[in-house]
C-alpha cells in the first residue's frame, strides 16, 4: 500500500511553507504526485455593510484574495523548483461561507492531505475551517504538521490511540502505509472498559489486523492518571519518543469540542509531533 496522490494547502506563505518539506518527503517516499493548493481567502461578511456597499467591497476583497493566492503560488514555485518529485500548483480563491465546499471538491480525490496545525499563535479561524473541511467534507485523512515538527524518512515509533471507535479505526486504516514503514507501532489504550468486548484482550483484534499487514506492533494499556485523556496520551508519546501519533478525530461533536474542549483539540493545540487523523 502507498499514497499516490497527496494534497496540501497554503493560505499563509510565511507561516505554512514548512509543510511543503513534509509533503515533499512523503511524495518522494511513495512516488506520489503532490498537489499544492494556494488559497487566497476573502474574509468579508457582506451582511455587516451598509446597503449598496456590498458589491464594491466584495470585488475589492476578491481582488485582494486573488493577489494573495498569486503571491503564495509564487513562493511555492520558488520552493518547489529544485525538487525531483511530480507536483503541481492549484490557485484557489474562496469566501469563508463556501470554503468547505471548494476544499472538498479538490481534496476528495487525494489519498492524504497534509496541513499545518490549526491552533496556536498566528492561527486564524480559517485554519480550523480548512482542517474540518478536509476531514468532514472531503472525508480524507489529514496529517497535521506543527511548525517545528519533522517527519523522519524512516519512522522508528508510531503511537496509535485506540478506543474502539470508528474514527480511530478509520485513522489506523488510512495510516497503514506509514505504519508498515515504522519499526515499532504502539497501540495505546487508556482505561479500557471493564465490560467491553475486548476486556480479556484489549486491542487484540486490532493487533491481529495490523500484524497481518506486516506491522510490528505492541499494546500499551494505560490508566487515566491525569484529568485529561489527551494529557495521558501526550505523556505516553513523549515516553515512547514517538515520531507520529495516529488517532481518530473529533469523537465528540465539533461544537462540544470548541466550547468544552476535547481530546482532538487539546492534542492539536499542544502536541509537537505530526498527528495523523481521520474521522
Automatic annotation (TrEMBL):
The family this protein is said to belong to: Belongs to the universal stress protein A family.
Domain of life assignment: Bacteria
InterPro entries per record: Universal_stress_UspA, UspA
Pfam families per the UniProt record, alphabetical: Usp
Domain UspA intervals: 212-278
Species this chain originates from: Pacificibacter maritimus
Entry-linked PANTHER family: STRESS RESPONSE PROTEIN NHAX, UNIVERSAL STRESS PROTEIN HP_0031
Protein name: Universal stress protein family protein
